[in-house]
Every structure is written in structure tokens, then in C-alpha cells.
User: Fold these one by one.
Assistant:
Number 1:
Amino acid sequence: MNRSYRYPLIMLSALFVVRFTPAAAATDPGDLGPARGSPIEEALVAPPNVPAPIHRDHPARVIVRLETHEVIREIADGVRYTFWTFNGSVPGPMIRVRQGDTVELHLKNDPTSHMAHNIDLHAVMGPGGGAASTVTPPGQESVFTFKAMRSGVFIYHCATAPVPMHIANGMYGLVVVEPPQGLPKVDEEYYVVQGDFYTTGSYHEPGLQPFDMQKMLLEQPTYVLFNGREGSLTGSNALTSKVGDAVRLFVGDAGPNLVSSFHVIGQIFDDVNVEGGTLVNHNVQTTVLPAGGATMVQMETLVPGTFLLVDHSITRAFMQGALGELKVAGPSRPDLYNKVSGGPILGAVAPPPEVAAAPGTVDATADGRRVFTQICAACHQGNAMGLPGAFPPLAMSDYLNSDPTRAIGIVLNGLSGKITVNSTGYESVMPPQGPQLNNDEIANVLTYVLNNFNNKGGTVSAAEVKAVRAASAPK
Ligand code: CU
């Protein structure tokens, strides 16, 4: 067609479109039509569990009931914090709907709350993501509806001023909008949200710790955590799977400040929904979660063992709490993974069994065992026998038993150069632990080692550690 005829024709057809298309607003491809059937009450569950997958072929009206609660509970063993929560958990429960659903969201604020709260869901296309319609004073309830127009994995969070403080105190979760055809079937699904926490006390300083606004402004968190508590996904709380299973993790990063480099040590993500959207990447080692972003990762657990969930900004994992465990049970697969020779397998020797401390208190023995397991066992081994030619034993150690006070200085300041332990020479380097462990922790771990592993017994006090620390501080 000749170019000069084209424009009038296009203009003419544009005129017809405007003139004869009824209700132009209903043509968005994300809109799957009006809700059908009776309204559905969503059965919410506490993290890391998730609601069941959706097997529905039509849009529905889904009622979601959230209630904000301000609660004091442990952020780490012996450390308490005032969390602000949706439904009492950090993160709040995962909301799961189907694209095209109309969500009727009820937000109640507990009458004993001190603050107003609201909710901004990133799955919402509307002012404030719902925050504009849900500012809720204590004892009241707000209701608003939205149609879930786009599938994906989305953060929700409180957006009441000061917004970063409400997020830093734990007010967030995920809303998953499944595509109309649903998600691929897997064997296990779990839900993990990372957050950064700011306390006036240092890492592991016991007692009730207030929120620290200055640390938050500097973006220097005391804790970086999965699901709002150190240990929420480790030990008896670990995620579980079986050899050969497909595992899906819905993962979010609520911030308020940090970006996460999410990684599972010893696994490769077969599928990653990039930034929680519909683009799927494959064979990914580490995926970036923006603050206020989320993703969905899927992996096959082929080999048994314990696999660590970390933020691979790895200081956060091993020194600020961003650590979880996925325990995979089943027969070994030596064709895929096999130790051929060398020293003991890491983690093969279990430390002595755990003894639960009363809530809100620090059990010195439990704390000592924790520090030993988290730090000392990496070199000295779980049975404290050390590694021949590399790391000296702490078990039955003449070097330790002859002078426990010397050991305080070694833990605080490290040690290098040749030493002789039980008639054997060692020349390795022990890094100083003084910067990351407080006086109580050093006292607890030394007392723990002295009273286990066939050592002579005895007690090291926090006051003794304090004195050695003061004496060795730079003048
Ligand atoms: Cu709030």
C-alpha cells in the first residue's frame, strides 16, 4: 500500500476502536473475568509451611484474614526483642491465590497494640498496594479488595510511618499469585523470608534488646535472619526432604535495607523465577533478592546430607544469623558424591546432645555448646580431637588443662607459632575470636570444653574474660 494512504486508514480505524469498543477497561490480559462460586476462606499456616497448591480452573473471591500483634519473643537464644507481626509470626503467613482471584483482605489490629498498622502488598495494582485503604488503629479492622492481575511471588509489608521501623520489626510476608495453569508439581514446598534486625546490644548480647534507629540509618544490622529468629530453620527446625525429591522454596527479602545473595550450599537451583516474575532461569548457584523482592527456586535433592541456606554475603550467615538447614534423608549416592580419602567428614561426629534452656534465659552449658559447634568444631572437630598435623585437640588436652587462663587469651586474641599438645607439635593459625564473641560466650565455651571431652573440669567466668580482654586491649 502506498504510504500516503496508510495514515488516514489508521486514523479511521482508531476512530472505530474508540467508538465501538465497549468497556475498554475490561480487556487487560491479566483479568480472567469475574469471581465465580462461593467465597473461599484462605487457610493460612505458620512459616516455613505454605498453603496447599491451587487446583482451580476459575477466578474466585478469596477471603484473607490478617491480624497485627506486637509480641516479645526470642530473636536468638537468650536474646528477646519486641516484634511487630502479622498473625504472630515473622514472616507473617504466606498468602496463596490464583491469578484473576479477587482477594478480600481483612486487617485487624490487636487492641493491645501501641501502633497503627497497615499493609502494602506488592501483588496489588492500586494506591499504596493497599496501604492507602488499610491504616488500622489498635482494636479496629480495615477491609479492602483487590484483583490479583499478575502472577508471581510478591512481598507484603506494613507501610505505616516510620515504614523502615515497621519492616525492621518483622511486619512482612509473601503473597504468591499462581498462574492460571498452576505451578509445576513438586514434593516439598517451604517459605523463607530474610530480614535485617537492629538491636542496641551487640550480637548475642542477652536480655530484652531495644530497636536501634541509628544502626538502621547506618544500615549496620546486628542480626540478618531467615524467618525472624536465629535457629528458626536449623536443628529440629530444619527444612526436610528426601533423596530424589523436588523442593520448591518461596524466598523473599523484606530488608528493610539489605539485598540478599541467596544460596543453598551444595545445591544448584534447577529453576529460578527471576525476581519472582515469569522469566525462568536454570542451573543457578546464587540468586539476588532485592530488598522488597522475592523469588521462587526449585531444586532436586539428589544426595543425602545437610545443606545450608545462606545469604552468600557470608559474614551475615556465619556471624549474624542468616543460616538455615535443609536436611535430605535417604540412601547415599556414591556415583554422584563420594569421599575418597583424607581427614574426617565435616559434621560426621555429632556434638553432645542439646539441653533446652528455659525460655528467656541463657543456659551457660547450652550457650557454650552452641559456640563450640558453630565456631570451634570447624577446626578442632565435633569430638574435639582436632586434626593430625593441622589442628590440636581440645579433648584430653594437657595444654588446655594446665593453664585455662592462657586459653582465655588465645580465644580472645588468636594464636600462631609452634605449640606442643599431648607431645605432638602443631603450627597452625587460630584467628582471634574476641571481636565477634562477648565475654559471656567465651566464658561459656571454655567452661563447656573444660567439662566435656575428658578434660579436668572447672569454670571460666565472664569477669576473668573481661580482665584478660582489658589487659590485652591496645593502650
Ligand atoms: Cu506496622
Number 2:
Amino acid sequence: MKPSGKPLRLQGGAATSRSDRKKVWLVTENSHKLREARAVLSNHNISLGQIRLPKVEIQSQDLEEIALFAARSIAEKVDRPIIVEDSGLFISALNGFPGPYSSYVLQTLGLDGILRLVERARGREAYFQSSIATHLEGSVFKTFSGRVNGVISRRKAGRRGFGYDPIFALRLDSKTFGQMPESEKNRYSHRAFALRKFAKWFLCNDHSIGPDRSPAEP
Ligand code: ITT
């Protein structure tokens, strides 16, 4: 349904009209994620607030399931339109490791540890995935995922970005995400893909979704 032009009241008092920017809140303690997401969503005229709360993270191989569980538990406490993002690096020759454990593995093995593991493995192919779960109002939750395929570089390069950016590149002969300005990373990144899917959906709906509508509906 198209916006009627009348103010639309979202939970948490965020009123929007056709001319206003719509607002959602990202639940994250990661300031890099927030900055990247803000830049992507602002291109769609959506403004992004931050809710700085730890996410409840269940153990699962499925990032959408992890994000969804976290969104459900946050939605019980927060009366605003929220998005929760869970992301990770999946290395093919390591059977998808570190995947959902990316944050923990970065703190323990570090980038050098990952480079050593990949050196011994067969192949450097890897991908980043970002999964977003959103809750706007009522009982409906939706998920969106984005993925970028690439490789683990032979050595660390670049000081931009965060996390695994200095060792992830689109190809072995191309620069790492850590060498890209944020605007360039946002052209290719898993997070940007997932957020663009979310934005397209968010802007095409009036969010007056009743519980009788399937959460899986596009
Ligand atoms: P929040 O849970 O507070 O949002 P987090 O950093 O813990 O922040 P995740 O649980 O989603 O986020 O962990 C994902 C980890 O994967 C993150 O800490 C990075 O190490 C890595 N990661 C995710 N996206 C990345 C990206 O775009 N570039 C580099 N590393 C990334």
C-alpha cells in the first residue's frame, strides 16, 4: 500500500509522512556497523538511530535464526521499530568457520591466526553474510540477508573498516575491504545488500501489518 500522505504513527512515536524521513533503530554495540548502515539507509531516505544493547545470541549455524531470536527478545523490551543484524565470515576450506563465531574467533585467534589456518587449507574462497531481522509493530518479524563472495587475502592490508576487513578481498588481485573507503565497501558489502533489501521492503509497506499476514511474505 502506498503512503496516504497522512502521518503514519510507528511504535515509539516515530511519525512519518510522505516528505519525512522514516526512522528505524539498529540494536548494536558495534559503531562501525552503525556507521555503514547509516550511510546505506540514508541513500534511501531512512534515518537510523542506535539502541546500544547486547544481543541475546543463540547457538546456530543460521545467521537469520540468530538475528530473529535476538530481535524477538529486544522487541519485548523496546517499543520502537528495530533492526538487529548478525554477520559473519564463512571460509569454504574451513567448512564455513568462523561463521556465527566470527566475533569470538577474531578476539581469540585474531587475523594472523586466521591467515595461518587458511595458509594450510585448500583454497582461499570465503564469503561474508549479513542477516537482518526487523520488528516494526504487532507480531510480525521479517528477515533479509545479503552475501558477498570473495577470498582471504595472503596478508593483511588496509586500516579502514573493522573486523576481518583487512584480510577479505573480492579477488586475490584486488584490494581488501580494509583498503576501501566506506562508500566503496558499501557498494559490495553483505551488509549493504541486506540493508538495501530491507529498505526496499520498508519503503513499499505502510507497516500496518496484521498478525494474519505471514512473516515470510516478501
Ligand atoms: P553487535 O552484536 O553489537 O551488533 P558484533 O560486532 O558483535 O556487534 P556480530 O555478532 O554480528 O556483531 O559479529 C560479527 C563479527 O563478524 C564482527 O565482530 C566482525 O568481526 C565480523 N564482521 C561482520 N561484518 C563484518 C564486516 O563488514 N567487515 C569485517 N568484519 C565483519
